[in-house]
Amino acid sequence: THLSQLETVLERYRATGIENLIGGVSLPSSSGATFETCSPVDDSLICSVARGNEADIDAAAAAAKAAFPAWRDTSAADRKKVLIKIAEGIEARADEIAVAECWDTGQAYRFMSKAALRGAQNFRFFADKVSSARDGQQLQSPTLMNVTTRVPLGPVGVITPWNTPFMLSTWKIAPALAAGCTVVHKPAEFSPLTARILAEIAHEAGLPDGVWNLVNGFGEDAGRRLTEHPDIKAIAFVGESRTGSMIMKQGADTLKRVHFELGGKNPVVVFDDADLDRALDAAIFMIYSLNGERCTSSSRLLVQDTIADEFEAKLTARVNKIKVGHPLDPATEIGPLIHKEHFDKVVEYFDVAKQDGATIAAGGERLGDVGYFVKPTFVTHAKPDMRIAQEEIFGPYLTSIRFSTEEEALEIANGTEYGLSGYVWTNDLTRALRFTNQLEAGMIWVNSENVRHLPAPFGGVKASGIGRDGGDWSFEFYMEQKHIGFAL
Ligand code: NAD
Fold it and tell me: Which stretches make up the Aldehyde dehydrogenase domain (predicted)?
């Protein structure tokens, strides 16, 4: 059934290809240029995609600018209604979205079916917050009654990556709309399918034309122009750290406000007093789900030497049982990696591990000759300064480093350029408090895998990002504080 459903989705886009959506009108690129999106399962063509250029971004920014005043001034109740209709539209098409995402990105259905529904949840969550978006404070002084309020920034740009692209797009766009901003979305070139479905759902939900514009294309032209456009007031970007640097430079002339969610090399630190069975489950889940193509994946295992042999042996046995396969097979845990380019990068790290003198305990090779499948990989006896312990690999690839003391664990955990998330396993509360207090990460879970609580702040430190979203933090980014003083 999933295959026939996929066929129906693909049928729709094969004829016209994936077009841009500008000012409520579906259009090819103004230059007529296209690129192809292919499935990482077998490299087969999915369809052609409009290759947006500077003129397309200019048209989308103009549409977003024109639509802004009316959307800003739409009552909170009416904005909320549209966001809920979008959530309902996602729910109604959740399975279609999930299969499309699996085919376009290689992610396993078991995770994408949940990710599609999480997209709807994101819209419902921010729909509920619309009425409080403008809330401010009253700050009395002897001579003035000071009040603050928040106003939406204007048209904003959203640039998303190819990992769980549907869910991430909803997470960025829902709060922008709730705040009263209008949007130009530039999705990743490797995964354009569900961004198009999402924009169609928003259109059908009655979102006014121009409030949400979609321009496909590459980072170096469409993406760059969006970040340089004078009418675009802010850029919400999710992607690699070095792209974040480029966007910051590109946006400098127009003083762009930026929110960056970037790369990670997140540690899962397992002390010998932890509940080791639960730690094992969580360590496995956080790197071998979503193909390991996950910003918050725990890609470094820091394990105390007293339990390292046993823990690593159990982990190896579990990794060898992980099912790699067709992403639409409900039993599949790991599908193919997104694209040849990324596959080549991950495969290169198999050799890097050997050259560096680490031990490949599981995996370490590609799987089959068709598509971009790799075996889930577990590398032990790594040293903190090795490339496999420092660089974001972004695949089902876990690097284990042993430590003996808490101080050493902390030094290793903090010893990379990144600081997105961290996971600490210990039953010693004092140690957990001490350790988390000093761990350089934007988000830390103790005795837990990553469990997302939507009102909580999301984001990283160091090269992992700038700014936070989630809950009210999303409004802090998409809105401007305004102060008004009334003389008494
Ligand atoms: P990427 O940086 O290559 O691309 C992301 C997006 O930026 C794409 O849409 C791309 O077209 C665009 N882009 C590229 N160059 C640009 C430029 N010069 N100007 C404007 N836009 C440009 O990232 P990717 O490979 O698609 O995604 C994987 C990365 O994303 C990983 O590093 C991962 O850790 C990170 N990520 C972080 C989070 C987080 O919340 N911290 C979440 C998901 C992914």
Answer: 30-484
190-228 burial string, b = 16+ CB within 10 Å, else e? bbbbbbbbbbbbbbebebeebbbbbbbbebebbbbbbbb
Which positions are catalytic?
261
- In a 10 Å sphere around its CB, with 0-12 CB exposed, 13-18 middle and 19+ buried, how is residue 457 labelled? middle
Q: Are residues 474 and 175 in contact, defined by beta-carbon separation less than 8 angstroms?
A: yes
Per-residue pLDDT reduced to its tens digit, 118-131: 999 999 999 999 99
The pTM assigned to this predicted structure is 0.98
Cα–ligand 1 centroid distance for 185 (angstroms): 13
The crossing angle, in degrees rounded to 10, of helices 2-16 and 193-204 is 80
Which atom of ligand 1 lies at the shortest distance from residue 224's CA?
A: 19
Ligand 1 center–CA 234 separation, angstroms:
16
For the CA of 242, the closest atom of ligand 1 is 2
Extended strands (E) in 86-181? 138-140, 144-152, 155-159
Nearest CA to ligand 1 atom 15: 219
Q: How many CB atoms lie within 10 A of CB 254?
A: 15
Q: What is the band of 1 on the pLDDT scale with cuts at 50, 70, 90?
A: confident
Region for residue 174 given its phi and psi (left: phi exceeds 0; alpha: psi -120 to 50; beta: otherwise):
alpha
Q: Which of 159, 291, 466 to mutate to test the pocket of ligand 1 (most atoms within 8 A of CB)?
A: 159
Contact 271, 435 (CB under 8 A): no
Contacts of 242 (CB under 8 A, 6+ apart): none
Ligand 1 test: best mutation among 189, 193, 237, 240, most atoms within 8 Å of CB? Answer: 240
What span, in angstroms and rounded, lies between the C-alpha atoms of 336 and 440? Answer: 32
In this structure, the residues whose C-beta lies within 6 A of any atom of ligand 1 are 159-163, 186, 188-189, 218-220, 223-224, 227, 238-240, 243, 246-247, 250, 261-264, 295, 392, 394, 420, 460, 464-465
The ligand 1 atom at the shortest distance from the C-alpha of residue 295 is 34
Residue 126's Cβ-count burial label (10 Å; 0-12, 13-18, 19+) is buried
Which residue from 37, 15, 66 is spatially nearest to 338, judged by alpha carbons?
Answer: 37
Residue nearest to atom 28 of ligand 1 (CA): 239
pLDDT average, residue stretch 341-350? 98
> What's the complex ipTM?
0.95
What is residue 165's three-state secondary structure? helix
